[in-house]
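A.,

Following up on our hallway conversation. C-alpha cells first:
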C-alpha cells in the first residue's frame, strides 16, 4: 500500500539517543522508519511506539558500515512510498587508543558510518526535500567536532566532518524551506562509552541524560537552528576552546580521552 504520511527516518534507533529521538517524533504524531543492526531492539521499540502513540513504524535492520547499505535503505523506503520529511543521521560509534595500535578496519568502518553513510543518506533524501520545499535534517555531531582528539583521533575527526558538512549545508539550504542542524553533545549516558571502551576515562566521569539531550536536539531541529550545543557547561567549554591555543587544546583532549 502506498503511504503519504510525513515520516522521520532515524538511524541508530535501537539504543541511546536514537531511541529517544524516535519517541519524540512519535509523541508529535509522526510516522517513523527505524534503522540499526539489532532488529530485536527495533521491533521492541516499534511495539512500544505502536502501543503508546498508535503509530506504525517501519523497521529496517541494516549495517550502515556496508557501503551498499545506504542506497539499499533508500530504495526500500522509496518502494514503500514513504516520503522522508525528517532525516536523523544519528547512528555512530567511537573507538579509543593510539591510532597506530588500533584495528584499521574498524577505524575505516567508523568513517563509513559516521561520515559516509551520513553524507550518502543526506544526498539521497535532500533533492526531494528541496523539490517540495520542506524537510529537516538532524546530524549527530559532538563536542568532539570542535577539537582534535588524541586517543580518539578518527572519532573526533569524523565529528569535525559532520560539523563542517552540516554547517555548510545549512548555509546552502537558506531559503529552500529545508534546514540542516548539527547536534553537538558532550558525554551522554548511552551505550556509546561502553562501545568505545572509554567508560573509565576522565571524559565520562559525569554524563548528561540522553532524553534531555535528544529533546534539545529535536527542538533545535524544528527551529532550524544550525549548530545545537546542549547545556551551559558545554557552551562554556566551547567558548574557552575558542580562546585557548590549539596546543593546549590537544593536551586537554588527550588527558580527557586517555584510558
Ligand atoms: N553518548 C555520547 O556521549 C555522545 C556524545 C556526542 C555525540 N554522540 C553521538 O550520538 C550518536 C548516537 O550515539 P549514542 O550515544 O546514542 O550511542 P549508542 O547508545 O551506542 O547508540 C548508537 C546507535 O547506532 C547504531 N549503530 C551502531 N553501529 C551501526 C551500524 N554499523 N549500522 C547501523 N547502525 C549502527 C546502534 O545500533 P546497533 O548496535 O543495533 O546497530 C545504536 O542504535 C552517535 O553518532 C554518537 O557519535 C554521542
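Then the amino acids I'd put at each of the 259 positions:
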Amino acid at each position: 500500500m502506498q503511504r503519504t504520511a510525513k515520516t522521520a527516518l532515524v538511524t541508530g534507533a535501537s539504543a541511546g539517543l536514537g531511541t529517544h529521538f524516535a519517541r519524540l517524533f512519535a509523541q508529535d504524531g509522526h510516522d517513523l522508519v527505524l534503522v540499526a543492526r539489532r532488529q530485536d531492539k527495533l521491533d521492541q521499540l516499534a511495539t512500544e511506539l505502536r502501543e503508546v502513540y498508535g503509530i506504525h513504524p517501519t523497521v529496517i535492520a541494516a549495517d550502515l558500515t556496508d557501503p551498499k547499505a545506504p542506497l539499499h535503505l533508500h530504495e526500500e523506503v522509496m518502494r514503500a512510498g514513504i516520503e522522508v520529511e525528517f532525516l536523523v543521521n544519528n547512528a555512530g560509534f567511537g573507538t579509543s587508543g593510539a591510532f597506530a595500535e588500533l584495528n584499521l578496519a574498524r577505524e575505516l568502518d567508523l568513517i563509513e558510518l559516521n561520515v559516509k553513510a551520513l553524507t550518502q543518506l543526506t544526498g539521497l533524501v535532500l533533492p526531494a526535500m528541496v523539490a517540495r520545499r520542506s524537510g529537516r535534517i538532524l546530524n549527530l555531531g559532538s563536542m568532539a567536532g570542535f577539537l582534535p582528539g588524541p586517543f580518539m583521533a578518527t572519532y573526533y575527526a569524523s565529528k569535525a566532518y559532520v560539523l563542517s558538512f552540516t554547517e555548510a549545508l545549512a548555509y546552502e539550504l537558506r531559503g529552500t524551506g529545508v534546514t540542516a542542524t548539527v547536534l553537538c553533545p558532550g558525554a551522554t549516558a548511552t551505550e556509546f562509552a561502553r562501545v568505545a571502551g572509554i567508560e573509565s576515562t576522565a571524559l565520562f566521569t559525569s554524563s548528561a541524560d540522553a532524553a534531555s539531550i535528544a529533546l534539545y536536539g529535536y527542538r533545535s531541529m524544528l527551529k532550524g537552528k544550525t549548530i545545537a550545543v546542549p547545556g551551559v557547561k558545554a557552551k562554556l567549554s566551547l567558548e574557552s576552546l575558542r580562546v585557548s591555543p590549539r596546543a593546549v587544546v590537544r593536551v586537554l583532549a588527550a588527558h580527557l580521552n586517555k584510558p
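The chain has one domain: 6-257. Curious whether your intuition agrees with the design.

B.
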